[in-house]
Amino acid sequence: MGNSPEETEQLRKIRAGDVRTASRLIRNLEDGLPEAKSSLKRIFPHTGRAHVVGITGAPGAGKSTLVDSLISSFRSNEKTVGVLAVDPTSPFTGGAILGDRIRMQRHAEDPGVFVRSLATRGALGGLAKAVGDAVHVMDVMGKEIVMVETVGTGQQEVEIINHSHTVIVVLVPGMGDEIQAIKAGIMEIADIFVINKADRDGAAQLMNELIAMLNMAPESASGWRPPVIRIGSVFEPVPFGESVAELSAAIGDHYRRLVETGLLGDRMRRKTMVEIHEALRDAILEPILKGLTESGEMEQIAGRVLRKESDPYTAAEEIARRCLK
Amino acid sequence: MGNSPEETEQLRKIRAGDVRTASRLIRNLEDGLPEAKSSLKRIFPHTGRAHVVGITGAPGAGKSTLVDSLISSFRSNEKTVGVLAVDPTSPFTGGAILGDRIRMQRHAEDPGVFVRSLATRGALGGLAKAVGDAVHVMDVMGKEIVMVETVGTGQQEVEIINHSHTVIVVLVPGMGDEIQAIKAGIMEIADIFVINKADRDGAAQLMNELIAMLNMAPESASGWRPPVIRIGSVFEPVPFGESVAELSAAIGDHYRRLVETGLLGDRMRRKTMVEIHEALRDAILEPILKGLTESGEMEQIAGRVLRKESDPYTAAEEIARRCLK
Hints:
The structure is a homodimer.
Chain A: H1 5-15, H2 19-30, H3 34-43, E1 51-57, H4 63-76, E2 81-86, E3 113-118, H5 126-140, E4 145-150, H6 155-161, E5 166-171, H7 177-184, E6 192-195, H8 203-216, E7 228-230, H9 237-260, H10 263-294, H11 297-306, H12 312-323
Parallel strand pairs in A: 1-4, 1-5, 2-3, 2-4, 5-6, 6-7
């Protein structure tokens, strides 16, 4: 059970916030290297201190710019910040298209800020797992706020959001956003709403619709009522800065409410359940898929199914019978 | 191995296009009923005739209206049509928010058209699997064209698109769509581009950007070059109708190209591989999760992980050792 000197050193460096060691571990976790998994087990007991903030909304809602402003706001309050930007993978190039390089450039020199983008290469819901892993690394680095910015909508996004304590939904006027958010199924999981680009036409209408919707919603267990924060154009310095400060204050308020009401424990439990599910997929399904692919059996099964000599469900049941005790 | 008279009757009715029998099977598949899985095995040998067309794009891009117009266009060419509208599930209400009822009302009386919406309740990527299952049912009903309309972007969407032979990406001017589409990682999988609401400002610019991007792309194995089709406002009857006819012709052209070049076989194989993966998840992981939850062991594991007495990865490995041969 003892750790090697290298392993002890890796843990020490990550806990000290060493960017190179942390970056390498995140990359190795993404690549699914077995030694990265061992590292994850070693760092796990040191997790649980970061406030994880999920930021979601339709593409084009201005989430990256908002996250960039929030970094500045948290830094001015002397909070350390981790940011995880989740880029959906191109199925062909297999990597993140928008990288760290073009994101949040101006924070690159600040040792209190650690920004990484993440993409996934795994077919079976690997993205949510990779997000959870990278959040753990940033947590152990001592980042007090870890922001997870996700692109897009849908079930996958909801899974990523499950790793957060506070969820911010970013809407934009004039995009039919109210409908978009309902469609995305993320309305009920919002702890804070942001109306971004609030100098655009339709901001007041969107505000009214949101408030009407919130008035109809049942009171939450914590008594928290999601605030709606309007943020104008970046090119309007004064109101922009003020509204970002309001947002970062609301993020802090929400966390304090979770702590005071004991609901933080519930969110931690939900997060843990999700992690166990993901780890089970990784430990059970992935090795079976790998074995079938490497032995060439997957090709044979596909051939039989294509010729209609079998079907996917019967083939899967046969494999289950063979693999499961 | 013999089927009961009820089973034979169900298969006969679905093959005859019976709406009630097909709807019930799709619902039962969504609900994960074991008898639905047996039905799926029975209908599987009769699949493989439909041309499956995936239609994707950002929320608000006007996909539903476009699908509605395509139905009319295919019907005027005497093609039978199935439509599967994929609504992301609300994690709280657990159902589709936009139902069949408000979609494509005017085709409700046409026996050559079958429209269903789909949502998923499963946590682990159940949506893509449910889509594949419902496409099979529509295929066996004899629908010549099956359109799968998905909302949103991201990995989940790419998985759904894997079930299609022809993929249409719908963009709208002035939404920063070019960036959106790249972010979504779906640009490379488009067989046809639609610039919808092409009477809006920015349509020409978007067209130019798309063409520039396509000019840089390597030639595809089939020699197919994705056409870019502009579709104006619904309230401009003549050009709208013409451009929809152009789109439905392009859909047919793409399919013929796939057949002529033999690439249809490659797409069928990819589709089959995805289905086998999904069936394996269903046959292997789901029963383990169910067992752990019902026995209360999942709660105990979560407790140990929360108290940092264990970690998700070690816990999952222990379960894997116990469950796998």
